[in-house]
Amino acid sequence: MAGVCFTVTGILQVVINAPNHDTLADDFRAVDSVRFLLSCILSDWSLRTRSLRRMHRVERMANSIFITAPLCMVITAGFITYNITTR
After folding, report:
1. What is the model's pLDDT at position 22?
2. Are the CB atoms for 73 and 5 separated by under 8 Å?
3. pLDDT digits over 22-75, tens only?
4. Taking the alpha carbons of 49, 52, 56, 61 in that order, is the dihedral positive or negative?
5. What is d(CA 79, CA 70) in angstroms, rounded to the nearest whole number?
6. How far is Cα 9 from Cα 21, in angstroms, rounded to an integer?
7. Is residue 4 part of a domain?
8. Number of folded domains in the chain?
9. Which residues contact 38 (CB under 8 A, 6 or more apart)?
10. Which residues contact residue 15 at a Cβ distance below 8 angstroms, ignoring those fewer than 6 apart?
């Protein structure tokens, strides 16, 4: 999923035709890719921990971060689509 964020950021640069043009969507996608990475790290940590209580707590954190990441991805995609269609 982090790769998808980077791919969309690259495609966005091609569509805008300005490789050095920084948009807010690029920043949102970068933060989103960090969310996906963090959820993967937390998920792996929850599988490797021995404490049952800690496992459930870390698992809930990983799940909530993972749920917010695609939601933010869809919202950013909507902003990108709206921006491209209004040009």
Report:
1. 56
2. yes
3. 567 778 878 888 898 999 999 999 999 889 899 999 999 999 999 998 888 888
4. negative
5. 14
6. 11
7. no
8. 1
9. 65
10. 84
Is pLDDT at 76 greater than 90 in this prediction?
Answer: no
From CA 3, how far away is CA 40, in angstroms rounded?
13
d(CA 27, CA 47): 31
Q: Which one, of 28, 38, 21, lies nearest residue 5 by Cα? A: 28
Mean pLDDT of the chain: 79
Give CA 29 to chain center in angstroms: 6
The CA-CA-CA angle for residues 48, 3, 9, to 5°, reads 140
pTM surpassing 0.90? no
Residue 30's contacts (CB-CB under 8 Å, 6 or more residues apart) are 5, 9
Task: Note whether residue 5 is domain-resident.
Answer: no
Q: Apex CA 66: angle with CA 1 and CA 78, to 5°? A: 65
